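Q: Could you predict the 3D structure of DUF3137 domain-containing protein?
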Amino acid sequence: MIQEYERSLTGKEREILKSQIATTKSLLTKKIKSVILLILLVIGLGTLIFYFQKLWSLIIFGLTTFFIIWHLYYEILEIIRIPKFLKEKERVIATGIVKVCEINIDRFIKINGFEDEGNHFITEYNNRLTLIGGQDFFGVKNLKNKNEKIEIMDSKKTAIYYEEVKKSGKIINPYYTLKNGISDKILDSEIWMKLTNQKSISGKLEDLDEFLHESI
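A: Sure. Here are the predicted structure tokens for DUF3137 domain-containing protein:
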């Protein structure tokens, strides 16, 4: 069963964002120092080009200077972008919202790396089947009986600043694990079409037994 709702940030979630801000500020300081050193290096290379007028030195120093300036350009753009991003994240701490997708399950079938979009799961809860997963579930190997996908967003819901899949309750072992993807037979089945077109359908995992032996 899937429930979607919105709530305010918890204290722990605010601390996570504050920790990210502190890490980014530390990175900004390192980037500024790096840019200063690169500028000094460019000045030094420019001086060498001035004093060494031989063709080989002009080519070597010129190419090196070009690539350093190219790198400098993107580093400076990043330095300009970071303070704005930090202010936005600080506003999220104060006024942001959390979008929660709560998934309760009794049993599940695990599908490894389906269509290169991360793991998918066919879940069963109170005789209802639901298909979940995808890129948001990269790295999620197993599920518990309560799972929450959270997205921390700004108050206008224009961007996601943190996301996580939380699992709580008891660990549930898969009913099946499909290590090699799904057979064409199940992909062409009516039950699969319903799972991909609806949030949930009436049924049990046993309804898929006739298809699974080709995928295991």
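Q: Anything worth pointing out?
A: The first strand starts at residue 2 and ends at 7.
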